Recover the amino acids of this structure.
């Protein structure tokens, strides 16, 4: 297949490019120049030539400004929304002007669609949208992508949970403290975390790409969500480190604001990958124990330390 990818240099995009190396890949890059086969686009100015996408079989849209990098001011919220909806809408407008639009469009979204305060409710793709900032952002983001279905493109919106890999993302930021024995639960620890390994996220994306029967929203999460306290305990066990020190929330709220911290660190979202499982997808790392074991993040066996894993029950 000939596949175009936005956000190709990001945490997920880089891993996806490696996994799709057997296909003809084109990265959509911002800037004034792009070296073939990559092409230039600029969502802010609305620049994307439909001619550059002719012959592309699939487009995977991962572009968007980092949601947790800055305090959520009114201006920053607008930037976060526009960095997702402008680019997505620009791609769809290009599809509409192509002689042969791509057959499939996979566009990123997030489990933030369901809102931050879902408690113990089990959420599959049939659950309604929440009513906070991230939920509104995801609704608009998905709406922009689903417009491509009007011209016969198969569209799947990838509602991604917490992606785990030591190379980046949440886990890379947490590992230094946990390796020092300074990691622990965040807030009450009772909030649910819906996660997926980077390996399974990439595998699931490829699965959706190859299966014509999968469209609409798809939860990219493992079938085994855990509470935040259980997550901390399991990570500590994998590292052979204690986890009795809770993460101080006050400094984080002072730096990033209460809304961001509540929405990203204290949110409770107990999601299930119904669409993936119905389609026959099999997870390589379905549990947190198997996830951490696959990453080899624990003490080296050569040190004489016995490595084991476990989880809070």
């Amino acid at each position: 297949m000939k596949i175009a990818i936005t956000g190709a240099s990001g945490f997920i995009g880089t891993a996806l490019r490696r996994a799709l190396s057997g296909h003809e890949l084109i990265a959509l890059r911002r800037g004034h120049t792009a070296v073939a086969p990559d092409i230039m686009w600029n969502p802010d100015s609305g620049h994307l030539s439909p001619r550059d996408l002719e012959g592309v079989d699939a487009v995977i849209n991962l572009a968007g400004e980092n949601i947790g990098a800055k305090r959520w001011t009114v201006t920053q919220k607008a930037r976060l929304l526009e960095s997702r909806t402008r680019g997505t809408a620009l791609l769809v407008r290009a599809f509409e002007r192509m002689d042969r639009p791509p057959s499939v469009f996979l566009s990123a979204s997030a489990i933030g669609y369901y809102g931050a305060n879902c408690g113990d409710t089990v959420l599959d793709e049939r659950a309604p949208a929440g009513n906070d900032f991230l939920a509104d952002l995801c609704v608009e983001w998905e709406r922009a992508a689903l417009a491509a279905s009007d011209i016969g493109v198969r569209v799947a919106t990838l509602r991604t949970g917490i992606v785990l890999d030591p190379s980046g993302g949440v886990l890379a930021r947490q590992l230094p403290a946990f390796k020092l024995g300074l990691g622990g639960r965040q807030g009450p620890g009772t909030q649910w975390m819906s996660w997926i390994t980077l390996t399974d996220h990439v595998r699931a994306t490829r699965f959706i790409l190859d299966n014509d029967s999968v469209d609409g929203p798809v939860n990219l999460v493992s079938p085994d969500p855990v509470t935040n306290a259980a997550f901390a305990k399991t990570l500590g066990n994998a590292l052979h480190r204690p986890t009795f020190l809770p993460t101080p929330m006050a400094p984080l709220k002072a730096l990033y604001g209460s809304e961001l911290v509540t929405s990203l660190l204290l949110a409770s979202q107990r999601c299930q990958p119904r669409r993936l499982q119905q389609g026959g997808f099999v997870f390589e790392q379905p549990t947190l124990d198997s996830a951490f074991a696959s990453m080899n993040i624990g003490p080296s066996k050569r040190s004489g330390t016995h490595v084991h894993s476990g989880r809070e029950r």
Remarks:
- The chain is about 35% helix and 20% strand.
- Residues 301-313 have pLDDT under 50 and may be disordered.
